[in-house]
Every structure is written in structure tokens, then in C-alpha cells.
Amino acid sequence: MGKKVKWSWTSALIGAASAAAAAAVIVGRPRDPSFQVTSINLTNFKLNFPVLDAELILAVHVTNPNIVPVEYSSTTMSIIYDGAILGSAYFDAGSQSARSCQLLRLPARMSGLQLAHHGNKFLADVARREMVLHGAVDFHGSARWAWWVHKFKVHVDSRLVVDPVLLDVIDQNNRSQIQHFC
Fold first, then answer.
1. Helix (H) or strand (E) run with residue 6 in it
2. Is 74 buried (19+), middle (13-18) or exposed (0-12) by CB count in 10 A?
3. Strand partners, 64
4. DSSP state of 3
5. 156: which of 59, 90, 123, 178 lies 20 to 30 Å off by Cα?
6. C-alpha closest to that of 38 among 130, 140, 167
7. What is the pLDDT of residues 94-108, one digit of tens each?
């Protein structure tokens, strides 16, 4: 108790810098974005003899939980019904601010020919008024903070239960997984 400890500014600065670096790593770690289909609107039918193709607009709510803005490239989402690719939706390249939400309206096209191949299942789904669709998409992008650019890829798997008569989204489960590149 009688021994005096000498104060060192160097030790204090090293401790403060270590604490700040640890806090930056914890707060700034990249987080997976979230996606939710809010609505599906039928916009048009295209005659693709002998069947009709349907054009839709998917409204997708996207949340960026990260502390830095992100930029992403254009991509196409596959829409899968009963194990077969039924259609696709196109995502334009863009960006999103840090810690923000955004509503994207995505044009989609569904193949009447592919749906005709699954006619019995589709008619049963219409009778039950429940149709299960799956979606898969990979986003490539980057997050920029000062001089540091961090590239990433996000893979999103979606399972949608849709009313095929009214095109209402009944239920959905979306999973996203992010991969980081140096």
C-alpha cells in the first residue's frame, strides 16, 4: 500500500486505442440485410402462343442494418415452382444508405409454358388457394468507408406462400447469408 504507481500517458493512450478498436469491430461488423416481399401485382399478360405469360411487379422491402452504405450490382432472381424455374425478377444495380429501409419494385415474368407443365398441381393449388414459390438470388456488392472498400456476396433464399387467385402473400420465410471478400 505504500508503493506509488507512476502514471503513464503512453499506457493510457494504448488502452484507449485498444478499447476504441474493439468497439469499432463489435459495432462495425457486417450484418446480413433483410428482404421481405410485401406485395405481388399482376400488370400484364403476354400471348406466347399457345400459352399466356404473366408479367408481375414484386414489391420487396430491403433493410440495410450496417453502419456504412452499400452498393450492389444488377442481378436476376429465379422464381421456382414445384422444382422448376417458372420465371425471373430483375434487380437493377443501385445503392442503399447506412441503416436504412427501401422499397424496391421488381419487374418479373412468369412462364405460362412452365406452369402448363405443372397443370395438375397448379389447379390443386388454386382450389386450395395456396401456392408455394421459392426464390433464389445472389447479390454482389461493396461497402465503402473512407479509403476501405469491402466486397461481399449475399445469397438469399425465399419461400413464399401465395394465394394464386388474389396474388396475396400469405406467408414467407427469407434467409440471407453473407460472404465477405478481402
1. none
2. exposed
3. 100
4. P
5. 123
6. 167
7. 999 999 999 999 999
